[in-house]
Amino acid sequence: MNITQYLTEEHRKCDSVYAEVEKAVSEENWEKAEELFKEFKEKTLLHFKKEEDVLFPEFEEKTGIVMGPTQVMRMEHNQARELLERMEEALKNKNKDEFLSLGESLMILIQQHNMKEEQILYPMSDQNLNPEEMVEKMSELGEV
Ligand SMILES: [Fe+2]
Ligand SMILES: [Fe+2]
What we know:
By secondary structure, the chain is mostly helical. It has helices spanning 3-26, 30-63, 69-92, 96-128, 131-139. The two termini are 16 Å apart.
């Protein structure tokens, strides 16, 4: 398995959990929504951690590109983290409209972010890094 396959699969898993979160919130099934949101947040943050702690530093070292795509990706992760915090707050307040509107912003951000990773950053990583070693190191951090 290469880096592109491994991390793209994680994007799909996070997307599918979010679809369930959205459904539970729409139905005002708050208990289920809270449980699913927790899972979504954990998976998303673990995925970010794998990229930030393992993939990006290695990408920067091997390609010498330090002020490029990895910086943009880190910035977008921070924007996503902030939205996740605000969504958690909205969920706590059972504020359905606020939650769904923040969720829509997050999904737009994440879809554009993931597309850039899947089409540019991951393929470049597979070409310039050792895919097997990277997948192994990222797997050691846990399963999304
Ligand atoms: Fe990312
Ligand atoms: Fe990613």
